Amino acid sequence: MPDFKIEDLYQGMVAGIDEAGRGPWVGPVVAAAVIVKNRQLSPILLKELNDSKKLTAHKREILYKELFCEQENGKVLIGIGEASSLEIDELNILQATFLAMSRAVAALPMRPDMALIDGNRTPKDFICPTKAIVKGDSLSVSIAAASIVAKVYRDKQMSDLAQQYPYYGFEKNAGYGTKQHIEGISRYGIIPQHRKSYKPIRDFLMNNTGAQK
Fold it and tell me: Is the model's pTM score more than 0.90?
């Protein structure tokens, strides 16, 4: 389970950063930055925080709400940033992810002294010093919290998009290439939020001129 051992290696305010939405074919990539002040959290968060992929949607929602309650209590600082599908197409997904991370840190009410970033790569010219932590969402409480915030926030966005475009199953697949999503594209074409640089979408456009909504 995640703990504060990595955070404790650094002085000052330490932010955990993670993203959601690198793999989907549609929608933004979202990053979250979370600072746990004084290493103090409610018991449910200390007990249940983990890599968002290891939690049920229901548990993620509970922890997401609890994290924002702790923000109101002054124990946690949360910043959220995103990069649009257009920016993903223009920059590539890695650089768009780094852009979303920069925006997430910029959205924090204070600049962290260190940013722990889930994965094995960090952005260049970042707003503060960074450290890549492989499988950080399973090791660091701050990164685990960021993984939940990013995932739930993006899932909510995709559910909203499903209200506008109900044929693709976005509320269930979050934009990944599921059978329902593929069938939706085949019948109704692509939407402006599709990532046109991704091979399945690019191939569809090449074979179906004028298929974009």
Answer: yes
